[in-house]
Amino acid sequence: MSKKKKSKYEGLQKRKAIAGYLFILPFILGFLAFMAKPFIQSIYMSFCKVNVGGGGFGYEFRGLANYIEAFTADVEFSRLLTEELGRMLINVLAIMVFSFFVSLLLNQQFSGRAFVRAVFFLPVILSSGAIIGVEYNNEMMAQMRDVIALNGGEPTITDAIKEILNVSGVGNSVFSVVFEIIDSIYDVVLASGIQIIIFLSGLQTISKSMYEAAAIEGCTSWESLWKITFPMISPLLVVNFIYTVVDFCMRTDNTVMEKIQTVMNELLNYGSASAMSWIYFGIVGAAIALISFILSKVVYYYD
Length: 303
Fold this sequence. Notes:
- With 303 residues, the protein is mainly alpha-helical.
- Helices cover 78% and strands 4% of the residues.
C-alpha cells in the first residue's frame, strides 16, 4: 500500500473513530452526571455494614465480609446464581439462533414483507413499559392469568412428547433443555425483536453481486449461507450477544435480582445487597468478556 493510500485509509479510520465517540458522548456525559456517584457509592457500600438512622446512612468498614457471607451464610444466593446463569446461557443461545434465521426469512423477497417485518418487531413495542403497565392493570388480563393459573396442572404438548421419549428410552438430559426452550418460546420471540433488526440491517448490506458470482461458480444456497452470509454478518454476532445478555439480566423475572431486592428492601441489608450485585455484575461481565473474546476469533471483519 502506497503512502498516499495508507494516509487516506488512516484518515478514514480516524474519522470513523471520531464519529463513534461522538455517538456515545451523550451516554458518557449522562453516566458521569447521574450514575458515577451512585456507582462509586455502591462499590463502597459492598465493603461496609450500612446502618440506617434518622441522620442518614452510617458506614462501618468490614472488608470482604459481605462477599464471603454472600456465598457462605446465604446458601440461596449461590443456588439462584447458578440457576440463573444456566438459564441465561440457554435463552441467549435460543434467541440468537431464532433471530438469525427469522432475519434470513424476512430478508427474502415476498409480497407483504413490510407487514411481516412489522409483526416481528411488535414484541419490542409490546415489551415497552407503557404496554406492560396497561396489560398488568387490565382486569380482563388479570382474569385470564387466573384461569391459566388454575389450569396450570393440565398436560401440555411437551409433556406428552416427554412421556413418549421416556417410554422409548431416550435420555432426558438433552431433551430437557429443548423442552425448556419450547415452553418459553413466547419469551424467546418477545426478546428477539432488536436482534432481528440488527441481523436484518447486516443482511441488507451484503451485495447481491456476491451471491450472483457464487451461483455462477456453482455454489448452492446452503454453501452461500455459510461461506458468504454468515461471515459477512459475523461482527453482529458479538453485538447481539452482548445486547441479549444485558437484556436478559434486566428482566423482571430474574431471580437473582429479586433476591438482591429482597435483601435490600425487606431486610434493609444494603451492604450485602451491594456485594451480591457486584458479584452478579462481575460474573456476567466476565462471561461476556470470555465469550466475546472467543467469538471475535471467528468473526470476519471487513472494510
